[in-house]
Amino acid sequence: MLLKFISAFGLVAIVGLAWALSEKRRLFPWRTVISGIAMQFAIAVFVLRTDAGLSFFNGCQRAVNRFIAFADEGNRMVFGPLAQPDVLAKSFGPENTFLFVITVTGTIILVSAVSTLLYHYGVLQVIVRGMAWVMRRVMGTSGSETLAAAANIFMGQTEAPLVVRPYLCGMTRSELNCLMIGGFANIAGGVLAVYSGMLKIPAGHLITQSVMSAPAALLIAKVLVPETQVSETAGGADAKIERESINGIDAICIGASEGMKLSINVAAMLIAFTAVVAAANWLIGHLVSSVGWQTDKPLQEFLGYLNAPFAWLMGIPAKDCVTIGQILGERIVLNEFFGYITLNAKKALLDERSYTLATYALCGFANLGSVAIQIGGIGALAPSRRNDLVRLGMKAMFGGLLACYMTACIAGVLL
Question: Global pTM?
Fold first, then answer.
């Protein structure tokens, strides 16, 4: 019970920290904050506390597992025995039952192909419009920023801005901040399936966090950069995006091609950042050894102590705070993929509550590399706003972190 009270205190503390860093502290958006927290609790209570919600939770896990099984069929068609866990286990041992690049490639390609197909036929647009309509009515936010927040539930941080592309140049500074924080506070459907399938992160928790993060991102964004201008889309906005595909077959082909590019990018980042972190640990280790600090991973240990207070505010047991803090730090410096890999590796050493809350806190693109990705991606769509994007970049990334931590606090109150 004490940990639940700490989670509740953490929720208040996160909002308070956002207010302390606000550009206009006197313009506190009470309606957006109260309704945003209420929406997150409503979503979490439904999924985590009701029979219908638990059925949805378990159904999500079964659906993702089935989806991954379909991807495995494609993998076996192309890669043969390299995509067969039983064959790999016999040859290389039970601890080597999959090849990372093969598992990731198949899953991301299939999710990307299906998502593009659904977008071609307008299915995703209908869902995004519906969720945006509810949030705009409840939270009092503008049409374009709410539409972008809803789109980020299903798309990545570079794809979601396409939904509001016609409005980008005319967005207020506060709306642009909302767009960026929404991207930092969520993950794309393709990588969600990878985390659930490859790393065995519960799909129900990932999907629940993805939905909760939309109102959380709007809430934090409006506290950090309150609206001081009149929005062009105060009365609403529509999802306007030109379809590149000619028909369903073309949509699948385009989606598969984009998925391949994404999977190659994921593999390249993991190789590069793993090497860079190893080099940094070696260098820092040699420097700190001169003062008597002997450690193989000084960078991770430093980040662990730095982020431990945030872990405590989420309601994570004290014995796990430094470990979870280290994982949160890895996510900021590297990305959430590394965070989930480390979390999975240390699962046996962690309290179940710590593991579950960490899955919520890590579920977002809030890392240093994503700042450059958003500036480059959104800046290409609206070159006239590039200076604003650069100025907002680090603040928006921190806002994305706070939004993710907020969802973990709310889950902590209920679990």
Answer: 0.85
All residues at 6 or more sequence positions from 311 whose CB lies less than 8 Å from its CB, including other chains: 320, 321, 322, 324, 325, 328, 358, 361
CB neighbour list of residue 128: distance below 8 Å, 6 or more residues apart: 147, 150, 151, 153, 154, 163, 239
Q: Do residues 216 and 403 touch, judged by C-beta distance below 8 A?
A: yes
Residue 241, Ramachandran bin (φ over 0: left; ψ between -120 and 50: alpha; else beta):
beta
C-alpha closest to that of 201 among 87, 339, 46: 339
pLDDT in tens, 139-191: 888 888 888 888 888 777 877 787 787 788 888 999 999 999 999 999 877 67
pLDDT of residue 169: 86
CA–CA gap between residue 15 and residue 46 (Å, rounded): 23
Residue count of the chain: 415
Q: Distance between CA atoms of 358 and 115, rounded to whole angstroms? A: 27
CB 229 within 8 A of CB 103: no
Q: Which residues of 141-157 are buried (b: 16+ CB within 10 A; e: fewer)?
A: bbbbbbbbbbbbbbbbb
Distance, in Å, from the CA atom of 82 to the CA atom of 86, rounded to the nearest integer, reads: 10
